[in-house]
Design a protein that fits this description.
6-stranded antiparallel sheet; two-stranded antiparallel ribbon; 12% strand
Length: 390
Amino acid sequence: MKYITSLELDNFQCHARTRLAFSPGLNVIVGPSDQGKTAIIRALRWVLYNEPRGSDFVRVGADTCRVAVSFDDGTRIVREKGPRTNRYVLYRDGEEQVFEAVGWGVPPQVLAAHGMAALQLDADTGIFLNMGGQLEGPFLLEASGTLRAKAISQVIGAHIIDAAIRDVLNDEGRAARDEAQLSRDIAEWEEKLAEFADLPAQEEALQRAEQVLAQAHEVRQRVQRLLELKQKWVRAREEAARLGRVVARLEGLPRAERALGYADVLMERYARLRQLAARWRETTSRRAEWERVAARLADTPRAEKLLEWAGDLAARWQKLRDMQLRLARARERIGQATRERDQAGLQEQDLRARYGQLLVRLGKCPTCGAPITPAQVPTILADMFEEGRR
């Protein structure tokens, strides 16, 4: 259970700026009349339940009033109202929530924050169990019998049974109204169905009409087939007339056949003449070619001499070609021998150097044992390799 720790009033009725701090337990506010004690209760009621409504409680000369209430759990509720302000501000658990344009009610978050919402007896009636007015009697003593009954029912839970009974009565009344409406609907439908009493006769007439329609459709198909046959007959008669005219034009056909046979004979003769003409042209062309060849063969002895001279030139050219090949191979062998000689010279220099180093390290002749100085080594090497070349 939480309790109020402080209340702040700014420009509320006679309070320009009032700060009240409460202690845990019972707090009593005493003072002379018309000093604002009732205004404190009204301010608390305004911040908790948004009552009274309107703006008559705004202090004369001020345009904005403000009431703030704080609880021991840190919750703080601020109610502000002015020409441009009409809102709740809720501070809870370190967060701030602002509810602008507040109407007659109280935001559910604010009711949940202070936990002192009105006990709702029915849809239109609610009582404040945590708040009493000036000169108001103890709990429910000044209320009407009906209101007390509702309040006691709420306390003991009888309102649930009352609500169930009320719902059952409402359901019963609704069911009776529905039954009456259904009876009226059935009577109305039966009256409408009476208008269709001749429906079987109409159905039988409809079946007869469908049979007649099917027969008419069959007759129509027959007529269509007859019209198609008529068109075929007309076309056949026209074709017969055309063939008759053709037969009439073919009366001179035997004579035409004889003329055609004679034309075939002429065509065969013409074809043979064309073959003979082609062979004559080919023969004439070959004869001219032979004559040109015979004219070119008139200088044959001189040509034979030129051919012999050309053969001699070819033999000489082949000999020159062979000599060039042998010369190239000889040059290649000379080059190979030169490379081998150079390689042998390098090996000789290497051996002379290595043998000279060996003589210097020995300090004597390896054959006679005579002592040798380093200055004598080049002379010994020159004599030894010169003797080797000889």
